[in-house]
């Protein structure tokens, strides 16, 4: 049986992700004895895989743009993001020795393209300010008289502090340690946890066509998401996507998924414009030139100048034009219909991929029960929340990490009163 160890601090931070590391380092920087509890051997594991291993640190934009890019409870973030906006996050990391660069859409990455540099910088921030990091999983809060007094770990160890910041993340990518621990702690304290669902997640659909094109990445395409219930397009974007064995993935698809708030089979249709630089008239002229160039070829053998090889059989099948039709026999109506297909290739969406595959979790601790000016619980004295555990999520592009850093910073900077 393990010996029970007790220690006392001013602040305990549960969770060593982006929000937790920022909160712990900031609290210690403010002169508070700070303990960071992390279930993984090293903090920052999920950060290591963000941005395809490059770590999209933030978005180089005004604070208001971050707020506007959070479809769930964006206004709740006003104080946090205004006090620690993207410009200050960028200065923070550059001061820690991480040169940054801004790419398309304002996305900010380390110049090295290495997420490890961001994690190492945060680790230096913790060490420099004297944060004690302990490996362990928090199993519960120590509560008495409507106040928090510490935490207990799964192995029986207890740590005491008048302030606890819960920054355990969501339930996406559970292999990185995000297994919903923060929601359990919030419920123990009497907080409401709103329903959890995936956000920034691949989409299942395509009726087998996508599987035929598995592995095909498309660049410089445009997408629209049509909502049948609302009867209108609810999202448009331009960029890159990927066909998979189950449906669609890639940056524009992940962003699109966060706009599909009420998923049900057949409600949403993704329309892919394969030639966004060409108007319908210019595209028709292009087809006429190609069909004239290959007038004696079969239709299926005339499209290699226009489409990737993996896509040609699928497009021919969807066009309704028999593949062996000679190009000089294709009628005007058939050509125009094929041009329309190139401008709006449809994929019917059945569902999201599992929440475990989502980049972020939508849903979480009800923000009506959290003070937006401090991140402190309105129900339990000394308890605060930061990061993905809150019912706040944003579009792709560095906004979610910005929210994690801003809320972690605010939670730590708002600690005042009794310390030990």
Task: Label this structure with key terms.
single chain, 420 residues, alpha+beta, FAD/NAD(P)-binding domain, 2 domains, six-stranded antiparallel barrel, five-stranded parallel β-sheet, elongated
* CATH topology name of the largest domain: FAD/NAD(P)-binding domain
Main pleated-sheet profile:
6 strands, antiparallel, barrel
Shape: elongated
User: What is the terminal-to-terminal distance?
Assistant: 30 Å
Number of domains: 2
Q: What is the name of the CATH architecture of the largest domain?
A: 3-Layer(bba) Sandwich
Question: How many beta-strand runs?
Answer: 20
Structural class: alpha+beta
Number of helices: 12
CATH first level of the largest domain: which class?
Alpha Beta
Radius of gyration from the CA trace? 25 Å
CATH superfamily of the largest domain: FAD/NAD(P)-binding domain
What strand line-up does the widest sheet have? Answer: 13-16-15-14-17-18
Beta content: 15-25%
Proportion in helices? 25-40%
Commentary on this structure:
The chain has 420 residues and is of the alpha+beta class. It folds into two domains: 249 residues, 3-Layer(bba) Sandwich (FAD/NAD(P)-binding domain); 151 residues, no CATH class. Helices cover 28% and strands 23% of the residues. It is built from twelve helices and 20 strands. The chain has a six-stranded antiparallel barrel. A five-stranded parallel sheet has the order 7-3-2-11-20, sandwiched between helices. Strands 1-10-9-8 form a four-stranded mixed sheet, covered by helices on one side. β15 and β16 form a beta hairpin. The chain starts with 5 loop residues before the first strand and ends in a 7-residue tail after the last helix.
């Amino acid at each position: 049986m393990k010996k029970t160890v007790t220690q006392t601090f001013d602040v305990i931070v549960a969770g060593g992700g982006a929000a937790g590391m920022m909160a712990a380092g900031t609290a210690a920087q403010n002169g508070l004895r700070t303990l960071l509890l992390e279930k993984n051997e090293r903090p920052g594991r999920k950060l290591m895989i963000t941005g395809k291993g490059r770590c999209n640190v933030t978005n180089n934009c005004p604070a208001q743009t971050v707020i506007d890019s959070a479809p769930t409870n964006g206004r709740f973030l006003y104080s946090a993001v205004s006090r620690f906006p993207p410009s200050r996050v960028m200065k923070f990391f550059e001061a820690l020795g991480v040169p940054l660069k801004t790419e398309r859409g304002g996305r900010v990455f380390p110049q090295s393209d290495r997420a490890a540099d961001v994690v190492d910088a945060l680790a230096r921030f913790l060490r420099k300010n004297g944060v004690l990091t302990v490996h362990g999983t928090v199993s519960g809060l120590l509560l008495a008289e409507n106040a928090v007094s510490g935490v207990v770990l799964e192995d029986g160890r207890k740590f005491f502090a008048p302030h606890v910041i819960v920054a355990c993340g969501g339930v996406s990518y559970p292999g990185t340690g995000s297994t919903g621990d923060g929601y359990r702690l919030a419920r123990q304290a009497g907080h409401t946890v709103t329903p959890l669902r995936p956000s920034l997640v691949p989409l299942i659909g395509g009726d087998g066509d996508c599987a035929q094109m598995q592995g095909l990445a498309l660049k410089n395409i445009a997408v629209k998401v049509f909502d049948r219930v609302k009867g209108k397009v609810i999202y448009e974007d331009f960029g890159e996507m990927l066909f998979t064995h189950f449906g669609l993935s890639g940056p524009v698809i992940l962003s699109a998924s966060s706009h599909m708030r009420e998923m049900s089979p057949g409600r949403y249709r993704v329309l892919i414009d394969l030639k966004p630089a060409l108007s319908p008239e210019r595209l028709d002229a292009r087809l006429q030139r190609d069909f004239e160039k290959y007038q004696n070829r079969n239709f299926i053998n005339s499209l290699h100048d226009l489409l990737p090889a993996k896509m040609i059989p699928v497009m021919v099948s969807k066009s309704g034009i028999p593949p062996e039709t000679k190009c000089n026999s294709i009628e005007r109506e058939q050509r125009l219909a094929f041009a329309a297909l190139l401008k709006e290739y449809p994929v019917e969406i059945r569902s999201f991929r599992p929440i475990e595959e989502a980049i972020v979790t939508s849903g979480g601790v009800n923000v009506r029960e959290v003070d937006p000016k401090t991140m402190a619980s309105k129900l339990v004295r000394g308890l605060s929340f930061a990061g993905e555990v809150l019912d706040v999520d944003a579009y792709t592009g560095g906004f979610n990490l910005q929210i994690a850093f801003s809320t972690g910073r605010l939670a730590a900077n708002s600690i005042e009163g009794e310390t030990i």
